[in-house]
Amino acid sequence: MKYLVVGLGNIGDEYKNTRHNIGFRILDALSRASNIVFKTERYGDVSHFKFKGRNIVLLKPSTYMNLSGKAVNYWLQKEKIPVDKLLILVDDLSLPFGTLRMKGKGSDGGHNGLKNINSILGHNKYARIRFGIGNEFNRGQQVDYVLGKWTDEENQDIDSLISKCIEGIEMFSTIGLERTMNSFNTKAK
Length: 189
Hints:
Elements: E1 2-7, H1 22-34, E2 39-41, E3 44-51, E4 54-61, H2 68-78, E5 86-92, E6 100-103, H3 112-121, E7 127-132, H4 142-146, H5 152-175, H6 177-184
Parallel strand pairs: 1-4, 1-5, 5-7
Antiparallel strand pairs: 2-3, 3-4, 6-7
Helix pairs in contact: 1-5, 2-3, 5-6
């Protein structure tokens, strides 16, 4: 059984450790914990990970956030992975910081990465882990907020939240979406 797990983010050092790059950060933590490395390939950095007999392809798109659908579609086709085995890791302004939600489908919620994936795939019926980043910004400051660095207070909880997301990835690949959603979804810290 093969899965595609995509962490959304933007390439470049200036975006590293920003709220918008939490998808990349989760996959980087998973790769360190599993002693695997990413290789730069078409449309992104890719790694292959085995977990309990499942083959999991990890992807950090190099297309920038707003064009993520191109990379997602390419790797689904290349690896012959059905869309029900796709999991997207994404930041979410509408959830308070510390809230994690796994969903099997849904709107883009104003997120340009999801909007592009929905457009390219032609639907929104794929699993995603929404990582709550909160919305602690003034009117007109949304871009600065999502591209901003985590606060010291947020950084105290990041590692445990990332670990929970890694558990969610592993559960998704072994017990399926419904059962994972039942035990994964959390309230804010």
